[in-house]
Design brief:
The structure holds two protein chains of two kinds.
Chain A lengths: L5 H15 L1 H5 L47 E4 L5 E5 L3 E6 L12 E5 L5 E7 L5 H8 L11 E5 L5 H10 L4 E5 L3 H13 L3 E4 L16 E6 L6 H12 E12 H4 L5 H14 L2 E8 L7 E8 L9
Parallel strand pairs in A: 6-7, 6-9, 7-8, 9-10
Antiparallel strand pairs in A: 1-2, 2-3, 3-5, 4-5, 10-12, 11-12
Chain B lengths: L1 E5 L3 E7 L8 H7 L3 H7 E8 L3 H13 L4 H10 L5 E2 L3 H11 L3 E2 L2 H17 L5 H23 L5 H29 L4 H5 L3 H11 L16 H13 L7 H35 L1 H7 L1 H11 L2 H5 L3 H6 L3 H9 L14 H5 L2 H24 L6 H25 L45 H11 L1 H12 L11 H16 L1 H34 L1
Parallel strand pairs in B: 1-4, 4-5
Antiparallel strand pairs in B: 1-2, 2-3
Helix pairs in contact in B: 1-6, 3-7, 8-10, 8-12, 8-14, 8-24, 10-12, 12-13, 12-14, 13-14, 13-19, 13-20, 19-20, 21-22, 21-24, 23-24
Classes of the chains: A alpha/beta, B mainly alpha.
Main location (chain B): nucleus
Keywords (chain B): Nucleus, Ribosome biogenesis
Family (chain B): Belongs to the NOP5/NOP56 family.
């Protein structure tokens, strides 16, 4: 599947970063040249657009080739439940909108008529902005985020990916979104007020005991925190909240863990760390061409062994 | 042993039925794999329900700080007699131990136990199904999140950043509209543009007279000075502009209304900004002034971010382009950034601006930290430091005067040799003499409207603005090509941030203009002082 929406994706990413960190970006100029050490549990500096981008430009000025209003498109379900592909002149990954009529981050929405006349709305999922979409595009074997699942999402940022996860899990499932930064947290809470299956948690993911009264046992943990100790963070959260036989998906940014070592070495190290904590990594895939230096590891937790119980 | 388990509905106390199994931590997980075996392990002893969301929020908020709320304390006292209590948070455990004398346990076994309870607790607590719990959890999380966010936004420096951004926007808009008024009305009465330099006065006059024919009859004494009024009336008679209809005049008048209301709003906004700055960062305001303080905060992103920067960064905030260019090409780095516009730096002689800017930046960094992280809400620290800075400035100038009047040991200072540093003529004791436009005669301009007109002139003419800089400081650091590169980098930051931040340009000028008459007086005083000293 060739990756669509390149131009839109790049512009979207720059705008996302600029929109989010409009004031704080400039402060990094002379003093703050620390690599990647942002607020704990918050999203890493992946979305920081290059300096030339004017932060005052209106968001949403993207030219989408082919998915213009009025063109005929076909929507077919993806191999993974809850995700769909829309085929027209260009292909795109979409999820069914839980709140029809509203865009969360000015993404494109596609309305399709069913055979019985009802309209279904889908929202386009940008793989350049969302690590999960990039992983699905990249072709992971098993997507454990399926309708009806309970998901703990670490590193929720402003809730753009979380909204898609919420679309996938549907009204029976639940997404517990953890984000430490107040500015992003505000946007997350706003998004969550429209979607009742998202529980916003403005806490440091390093201390899962701080949100123990809000989260029950979950089926999947998705982690996109971009911190050097993310394996430990994930392990801690899993020991609290991930059910036995549950699954995890973690997005590893090589330059965030150790920028001096080769990528493959970093990923191998992280996988080893995860294995030591009781995780069973099942697959690892790189997120090229959407993100550079990123890999996504998927696997199980405390999986029951065939012979004896763990 | 009892286990304390917090849920969005309330606190639950479970009794561990089989304590022996706790020693085998790994198998503990299995014991909770089904509801039946879970029930064999633990039993619900007591449940303390939250009455409503606000009670839940309170209890949980206190829990997060590590302290048990009253409800929890009562609950525990009532039910935990003589038993050890397993808790999820060791800090909480310690406090419970202190206050309620209940032994608390927190170890791996406890964590596994809690995990097991959590996976089965809908079964263990009858009457609390999944469906009930979900909305409660949602409600609690929203209230908690809102509580957290509101808490952190107590001292909102976001207001400052937005206000200063709006101020710059307003200035730009105001200028655009005012220019438009001039251009539009200039069709009808071109001479007026040259007669009245100030935008607001222009708009007021246009609003008052409408068609230039009315100029003779009307009285402009509230708006304009007498000479200007006279000129206006003369020009109105002999004007060469075209006639315009009433409908057009109505629209021009509406535009003037817009200009005037924007100007009024801008004044209000400035007052608002001043009051906000005094509330949020009183020490910084005392040191550098409201406008420079607000710009620093806006540049740093937030007060807290700014507090993390060292004094040297505060010194050159705003001159990043010049800084990195100088670093890359191994030239001298800029000496000041935004801080150049502080009044203390403006008062200093050009030679001492660098030193004062450094001292000011150091004190400013301290003031920012006081404001961002300290408890006190007063500006004593800022005021004290300002006095110190002014004393230092006087000291510097005193030393300078001493040197000028001659001393016995008049040896030139030997500089440290740095092969990489590009040198020119180094630090000149006196700047080279160039054309001093301050000595120009200003014929045809009335003294009252002088400062305002000067300000407006510079607004219109970018080149003249540079000279205005020079006028104020009485150095003309106009880069003459023969001058050393070092001098250029000094000029660059001044002209850099004016050039870089075009929106702020005009604001800077208004501010400089208000300081200019005061500064001019000071300069005169200083010159007299110097004269006196050299005489003696």
């Amino acid at each position: 599947m060739r990756p669509p929406l390149r131009g839109g994706g790049g512009g979207g990413r720059g705008e996302g970063g600029a929109w989010r960190g409009r004031g704080s970006d400039r402060g990094r100029g002379p003093g703050g040249r620390r690599p990647g050490g942002r607020g704990p549990g918050g999203r890493g500096p992946g979305g920081r657009g290059p300096g030339g981008r004017d932060p005052r430009s209106k968001p949403g000025g993207r030219a989408k080739v082919g998915l213009n209003g009025g063109s005929k498109v076909i929507v077919e379900p993806h191999r993974h439940a809850g995700v769909f592909i829309v085929k027209g002149k260009e292909e795109a990954l979409v999820t069914k909108n839980l709140v029809p009529g509203e865009s969360v981050y000015n993404e494109k929405r596609i309305s399709v008529e069913n055979e019985d006349g009802t309209k279904v709305e889908y929202r386009v999922w940008n793989p350049f902005r969302s690590k999960l979409a990039a992983a699905i595009f990249g072709g992971i074997d098993n997507n454990w985020i399926k309708p009806g699942a309970k998901v703990l999402y670490l590193g929720a940022a402003s809730g753009t990916s979380v909204s898609h996860v919420s679309d996938i899990v549907g009204p029976e499932g639940c997404v517990y979104a953890v984000e430490f930064s107040s500015r992003s947290g505000r946007d997350l809470v706003n998004m969550a007020s429209k979607r009742t299956n998202v529980v916003p948690i403005i806490e440091d993911a390093r201390h899962p005991s701080k949100y123990r009264m809000l989260v029950p046992m979950v089926d999947v943990i998705f982690s996109d925190v971009a911190q050097p100790d993310q394996a430990r963070i994930m392990a801690l959260n899993a020991s609290f909240y991930l059910k036995t036989g549950g699954h995890f998906m973690i997005s590893i940014k090589a330059s965030c863990i150790d920028s001096t070592v080769a990528e493959e070495a970093v990923f191998a190290n992280e996988v080893k760390k995860l294995q030591a904590e009781g995780f069973k990594p099942a697959e690892q895939l790189t997120l090229e061409p959407f993100e550079r230096g990123h890999a996504c590891v998927v696997g199980g937790y405390r999986m029951p062994k065939k012979q004896k119980a763990t | 042993m009892l286990v304390l388990f917090e849920t969005p509905a309330g606190f639950a106390l479970f009794k561990v039925l089989d304590e022996g199994k706790l020693s085998n931590v790994e198998d503990l997980g299995n014991l909770f794999s089904s509801a039946a075996s879970a029930r064999k392990m633990v039993k619900l002893q007591a449940f303390d329900k939250f009455d409503n969301t606000s009670e839940a929020l309170e209890a949980v908020a206190k829990l997060l700080e590590g302290a048990p709320s009253k409800g929890l304390r009562k609950f525990l006292k009532a039910n935990c007699e003589g038993e050890a209590l397993a808790v999820a948070d060791s800090k909480l455990g310690n406090i419970i131990k202190e206050k309620l004398k209940i032994d608390c346990v927190h170890n791996n076994a406890v964590m596994e136990l809690l995990r097991g309870v959590r996976s089965q607790f809908t079964e263990l607590i009858s009457g609390l199904g999944d469906q009930d719990l979900a909305p409660m959890s949602l409600g609690l999380s929203h209230s908690l999140a809102r509580y957290k966010l509101k808490f952190s936004s107590d001292k909102v420096d976001t207001m400052i950043i937005q206000a200063i951004g709006l101020l710059d926007d307003l200035d730009k808009e105001l200028n655009t509209y005012a220019m438009r008024v001039r251009e539009w009305y200039g069709w009808h009465f071109p001479e007026l543009a040259k007669i009245i330099q100030d935008n607001i006065l222009y708009a007021k006059s246009v609003k008052l007279m409408g068609n230039r024919i009315n100029a003779a009859k009307l009285d402009f004494s509230e708006i304009l000075a007498d000479e200007v009024e006279g000129e206006l009336k003369e020009a109105a008679v002999i004007s060469m502009g075209t006639e315009v209809s009433d409908l057009d005049l109505m629209h021009i008048r509406e535009l003037c209304d817009q200009v005037l209301s924007l100007a009024e709003y801008r004044a209000q906004l400035y007052d608002y900004l001043k009051s906000r700055m005094n509330t949020i960062a009183p020490n910084l305001t005392a040191l550098v002034g409201e406008l420079v303080g607000a710009r620093l905060i806006s540049h740093g992103g937030s007060l807290l971010n700014l507090a993390k920067q060292p004094g040297s960064t505060v010194q050159i905030l705003g001159a990043e382009k010049a800084l990195f260019r100088a670093l890359k090409t191994k030239h001298a780095t800029p000496k000041y950034g935004l801080i150049y516009h502080a009044s203390v730096v403006g008062q200093a002689a050009p030679k001492h601006k660098g030193k004062i800017s450094r001292s000011l930046a150091a004190k400013a960094a301290l003031a920012i930290r006081c404001d961002a992280l300290g408890d006190g809400q007063d500006n004593t620290m800022g005021v004290e430091n300002r006095l110190k800075l002014e004393a230092r400035l006087r000291n510097l100038e005193g030393k300078d005067l001493g040197r000028l009047s001659g001393s016995a040991k008049g040896k030139p200072k030997i500089e440290v040799y740095d092969k990489d540093k590009k040198k020119g003529s180094g630090g000149l004791i006196t700047p080279a003499k160039t054309y001093n436009s301050a000595a120009d005669s200003l014929l045809g301009q009335t003294p009252k409207a002088d400062s305002a007109e000067n300000g407006v002139k510079e607004k219109k003419d970018k080149k003249k603005k540079k000279k205005a800089d020079a006028e104020e400081e009485t150095i003309t650091e106009e880069p003459s090509k023969k001058k050393s590169k070092k001098k250029k980098t000094e000029v660059e930051p001044e002209t850099e941030e004016p050039a870089k931040k075009e929106k702020k340009k005009k604001r800077k000028h208004e501010e400089e203009e208000t300081e200019m008459p005061a500064k001019k007086k000071e300069k005169k005083e200083k010159k007299e002082k110097k004269k006196k000293k050299t005489d003696v």
